């Protein structure tokens, strides 16, 4: 008995399994498991570029987003470009929905930055050479200091000479080249002196944006969608605070159109700033109107409370700092999982895995009435799970819920194939007692034909999931494939040896 | 050989023999009937799909889901309340997790601000824990297309592998049809139980391709490659092995389904369970019928 036990333990297939097990436990111990955001909590966003891009541009988008989110003060970020239009962003340790929504805003703001004076753009995002840390003052006003290039500063000095007190505008993602349709009160405000920073001689905002950014502002006086289309003459139409039906009608006419809703309780000036992405206007200080170029400038603002002030300052800071994205992104799918819910899912998956193993043990026992079969079958499955987890730890695979489903599915197929091996070894009704070594080998060979064929089909099917699916289901395919490979090369051969020792050859 | 050691496997063999006896009725069925019944079920499934296709989940059509953990509420009442306050149709579901804590899921159309739903719920249930996801219809479109493509390609890949392994059109086509029927029936049952078609359930359908081919391969191998037994004997031995295989897998999946409250895990488990049940019929009745009918004509496979 002892000699036989030793022989089975020294069999190379069994040794290989033991080696893999030790390696996996070591890998789990040394590196630990990392979990996907649907378990550890966090946000998964899928964004699409406005138009398909080449791989170089995609790289740039990924880089720029990574940097931008880093400046935003987040850690544990993964940004991954998929195909020619999809960017998957995963951020761990996000604990509130507000934070999640803010992330979405940062990703969607392309960050095309314009500095404008008297209807002339004197600098863009590229002219920003340095961004200083933002400041929040006790009155909830905030400031982001930054430095502009010499050429922008010179252009500005020339434009601004002798115009002390005139407004300086800064825009983040303004709707350039568009027809802006606004209600009467907004139109009047934009054409009045409200945005002149107290300089009545300066041209009104509507005129400045027309000249600098080619934004034509018209008042909404019940024009029909057709009339608006004619006025726009091919430009994008931006509907702000006008009836929503117009949007649908224009959309139906295949006109490029954007709708900006006016939130209840927002005053007209705030609404205008929101429409245009306007920061400012800032009154031109005496010191800047003397024709001498000045490179150190700042954007300031004011918010209702400290949290909001901090958020605004941080957004401006992030956008200034990380520069413009080469293409605009739209978040098309967003998932936020709170860490607590994720923890629940993890526990459930753990219990479900254990329960599945126990179920397998009992059902296999029920079928064979033999613990000598049931225990090896269930423990082989357990070993398989340990090895899959060990490999996941080794390659730092983020275990998410689909990955876990894949592992549990692997328990299912693994057991199937062990049953095939067992039954082949047990043989037919009468031949059970006379199964000899040669017979056993032949039978095991037949079992492995079945196992290889089904492994090949599973891997073939899963590879397409891996290649053709965007988003979050890749984990399922990865763990299933790892499970199948481990199964055919490591655990099943070892099980076959052990089973042959326990039930076949005696 | 010592007798004591053979005793256990001997007993095991007896248990197997008994279970085989119970399954003998399958072996005695007429091949024609074995082919007809599953075909009828397949056609019924197709008809069901035509009138009652499973609903698309939000990740395939776009929409918003807010999950609140730690909320014990009547979903219908909450649905009315939320719909009234938001001015749009929402759908509310409740669930209980394995630890006994209750929660709700609110489904709203695409474009709804999840924060608004959360704000309303937070007022009523300040201690609840919230999670949300939103999907734009454009993503849904893309996911739908990719899902279709993944399933079609996976199916073709499976078919090619099966052909390569068996190199016989009849047995290969029988396997491929079984897999197709399994998937069709699984989707039809999803329609009956109103289980949503999501990216997760599409993954489960792909998994089904791998799963169901297992038992078919077992059957075909045993019937065509085991020459020392009679066809009936080989079939019975395959069916008893297959029965063990299916019940253990079903057991594992059932545990997953019972214990998890995550819609992703639940739906994957449910679809695999439906598919496996369908596979039982398609492998051991349909495919076996085809093979027995074919072999009875004295053709060498």
UniProtKB/TrEMBL annotation, chain A:
It is a multi-pass membrane protein. The chain crosses the membrane at residues 349-366, 373-395, 401-426, 447-470, 476-495. Signal peptide: none annotated. Keywords: Cell membrane, Membrane, Protein transport, Translocation, Transmembrane, Transmembrane helix, Transport. GO terms for cellular component: plasma membrane. Residues 328-490 form the Protein export membrane protein SecD/SecF C-terminal domain. Its main location: membrane. GO terms for biological process: intracellular protein transmembrane transport; protein targeting. It holds the Pfam family SecD_SecF_C. Belongs to the SecD/SecF family. SecD subfamily. Involved in protein export. NCBIfam families: PRK08343.1-2. Part of the protein translocation apparatus. Forms a complex with SecF. This is Protein-export membrane protein SecD. It comes from Thermococcus peptonophilus.
UniProtKB/TrEMBL annotation, chain B:
Signal peptide: none annotated. Residues 130-295 form the Protein export membrane protein SecD/SecF C-terminal domain. It is a multi-pass membrane protein. The chain crosses the membrane at residues 34-53, 147-166, 173-195, 201-223, 235-259, 271-295. The keyword Transmembrane helix applies. GO terms for cellular component: plasma membrane. Keywords: Cell membrane, Membrane, Protein transport, Translocation, Transmembrane, Transmembrane helix, Transport. The keyword Hydrolase does not apply. It comes from the Archaea. One of its GO terms (biological process) is protein targeting. It is found in: Cell membrane. Pfam families: SecD_SecF_C. Involved in protein export. Belongs to the SecD/SecF family. SecF subfamily. Part of the protein translocation apparatus. Forms a complex with SecD. This is Protein-export membrane protein SecF. It comes from Thermococcus peptonophilus. The lineage of its organism: Archaea, Methanobacteriati, Methanobacteriota, Thermococci, Thermococcales.
